[in-house]
Input
Amino acid sequence: MKNLKRASWTMGLGLAMLVLALPAAAYVGSDTCGGCHPGLHAQWVDSGHPYKLTELFGAAPVDDFPAFSYYPNDAVDPPDGYTWDDVTFTIGGYGWKMRWIDDQGYIVTSGAAEALVQYNFETQTWATYHTGDEPGTKPYNCGGCHTTGWVADEDWADDNDLSDNQNGLPGMHGTFFAGGVHCEQCHGEGDDHVNDPYGVEMMVDDSSEFCGQCHTRDAENHIAASGGFIRHHEQFDEWLHSPHVNGPGCNTCHDPHSSVKFDDVAQGTGTLTTCAECHPDEAEHSEHNGFPECTDCHMPMASKSAVAFQPYQGDIMTHIFAINIAPVGRTDGMFTEDGGFVQEDAEGQSKVTLDFACYGCHQDESGAGGTFSMKTLVELSDMATNIHGTSTGIDDQPGELVEDQVPASTVLLGAYPNPFNPNTRIAFEVDREQRLSIEVYDMAGRLVRQLADQVFTPGMHSADWRGVDQRGQNVPSGTYLATLRGENIVASQKMMLVR
Output
């Protein structure tokens, strides 16, 4: 990775040479850390942390990102009116979206002309950004969470000293050691440790509060919202107002060195545990009979970083966890009257409403939502009441279907999430024991992958597709058909893979 090499003082030299060559500055660079910690360094390179801010040198940064990240797989150029010579940094690009910083250090904005200056990777579309700020007027002051070693230019309005601005760019309201979140941003400067690795320990703070220094938005840690969704970077604020605040923290579930967004292909394990490890009874006893996953309902896509795929599905999973099972939607039951925050009860707890929890799969009365059956909020509330069977008892043999639970027919319910990258789950109901196959086709009718061909018992079932063909090779972005085939059924529904 070119930008990672630029961020380090030396690459490929022995530790002894590094010690001798260390400059007076306290930072030594993540590649130096990798000399003794190669495994953790490799995981970090594959995570999203290094790519919050990437310096440019007159060319597209195609070699600066992991091969699996959204950029450079979608090697978009700067917005109209800009070339790579006109921009000095990119913001993001690993996932979700990319923005640019111009040759004076200002974030490229839309202005009154409503220029399309933000690229959203998951929909491959351009969007406006800050129409109220004319180009060349919005300074970059996000370095506290986008860079390593950020020192803010506190008196930028009163002085003309560009030494306080990165690379002498007036729009950069601060300086930093390296773009992106490197090892030393979380563990402290490393020069003393490199010189005396056994005598000087690096800082290790695995508290959720430490993660919350960046994964927050509101100064008072309320959960900020806008446009009917939770705003991005809210994970710590959500956790503070969730049942988990007195239990598992950020690092219980996540390895901060590893990717969650691309956990299936990146090095390391971004998600360390499952809901069932802490909630075995609830995970085992569900009227959904194994579908959907716990996280589909308790961590729905109620947050939005770049795009909303449909009215009830943003592009980031919420970390509130608790569900309000009353028959109310988000307008009345989740967000404040002005839509600017998530509601809190007397104990400071927040909950997601059933429209977020359920309409990722089901449809509302207007047909909006997922591809599964239409359900009113009243029906969803009835279904959600005691759905885990923990209030009035459960069957001695959980998962066994009682007569009124047997589906009336065999039907393909659809895929969730949809759009997806790279995993989705195809759900279907079976009314009687029979042999069925579940297959994925491209839009030309060619078989891409067969997921199952077996006898299924009555009930709800699902098959996972990881976006690969019969040989296990990744297939490109596009629209595919999930097909359920049996003696008396051939049904297909579209799925959109967005890499």
